Amino acid sequence: xxxxxxxxxxxxxxxxxxxxxxxxxxxxxxxxxxxxxxxxxxxxxxxxxxxxxxxxxxxxxxxxxxxxxxxxxxxxxxxxxxxxxxxxxxxxxxxxxxxxxxxxxxxxxxxxxxxxxxxxxxxxxxxxxxxxxxxxxxxxxxxxxxxxxxxxxxxxxxxxxxxxxxxxxxxxxxxxxxxxxxxxxxxxxxxxxxxxxxxxxxxxxxxxxxxxxxxxxxxxxxxxxxxxxxxxxxxxxxxxxxxxxxxxxxxxxxxxxxxxxxxxxxxxxxxxxxxxxxxxxxxxxxxxxxxxxxxxxxxxxxxxxxxxxxxxxxxxxxxxxxxxxxxxxxxxxxxxxxxxxxxxxxxxxxxxxxxxxxxxxxxxxxxxxxxxxxxxxxxxxxxxxxxxxxxxxxxxxxxxxxxxxxxxxxxxxxxxxxxxxxxxxxxxxxxxxxxxxxxxxxxxxxxxxxxxxxxxxxxxxxxxxxxxxxxxxxxxxxxxxxxxxxxxxxxxxxxxxxxxxxxxxx
Length: 506
Description:
Layout: H1 3-28, H2 33-36, H3 45-57, E1 76-80, H4 85-96, E2 104-108, H5 115-118, E3 126-129, H6 135-143, E4 155-159, H7 175-194, E5 199-203, H8 219-224, E6 234-237, H9 255-269, E7 276-282, E8 286-287, H10 296-301, E9 303-306, E10 312-313, E11 316-317, H11 318-332, E12 347-350, E13 357-358, H12 359-369, E14 375-378, H13 381-400, H14 420-425, E15 428-431, H15 453-474, H16 486-505
Parallel strand pairs: 1-2, 1-4, 2-3, 4-5, 5-7, 6-15, 7-12, 8-11, 9-14
Antiparallel strand pairs: 10-13
């Protein structure tokens, strides 16, 4: 081929590629009109500062909303993941409504690290460090004897423990999620049955219903068709998928929701007259403590690269998710309740009692209110999309061909989360309380959230400020272990145990 012709073809190809990527970037940087209508107003500086002022005078505590917590039941409680976000709020709410500390047991991999728990009666609750991926460890935690004053009471288990690996999607790296979220749930269910529990409620995830986005159309469709957008670019988080056969692994956006869907089926399949079960699916983005990923993650970073400021999503405060669990228990623990109750053996999605917001609202709240440095660095989403595919390819290369592990360093830091699954979960996701909010007679849980997203996020920033101002006064620093770091801690612990076992057998 003539060199000039070859150069022309190459130049035309590059121009078309850039035109394709430019057009795709423009499309995924927009908010569909039908989604924008669900969140028509943005938070203002005056609104944020007024909410902050009110919460400083009257902060939300378990005492301030105690009248909204379902009444005390004469029961014992095991809370797996009770040191975490949702599990921690369940423990705090149980104590607030009058459950004695000796009637509650926290079963978790990590000891208490939330400041609101360490400085409260929650610090006196029995804690059993447990790895639920181990059947022996789980059984040991559940078979431990109880204080004589409560040993005779019926047992409720709230299973909130899980690992969140947000973006990995290949079956080649599914083993870790499966060992904790699937096998771990099986271990907890079986241990609960042996321990005599008659109510079992698990935290799963609203992300179970999310489908992968089809980002890469044929060029002629993208460049020629007006109004085109990726399939599944906006989605509704509901429970409809549960009432159909479970989807194939590749139909989930990542390994995490695939594992949670399998765990959910285990829990709901165990539903029986003497062991009523159910699941709560918190909407995408659970927050409520500086250790969370949704608000605490940006606060901890300071400089935040982002491509999602325009994205509209539903969020749920840990307080609301926890209260939903207690509403579920109130239904399943009713005298005469059977496995055939309409609420038993099924999941319910739960979200905050307000319309969805944008990530831009969250970022603006932090920038307006936080005493620490915060700024966003906007990156075109198509660049992130391309980087995600490169990082996934690189990571799987090391998995498929172990020889490369000695030649190629692993991806570390925040970059390791940049895989295509992250793009699927960072899209427009809207949830509804329609099913969970129905009356008990109508098959719901009579749930109503007690914290709005505005109140919850502003209070979290306020708590962050107070802790940092106090630390500055003492000349110390505040450190948080965000929940997304738990998988790495578990993997390191698992590797350490494997080394010890190997040394012991040599």
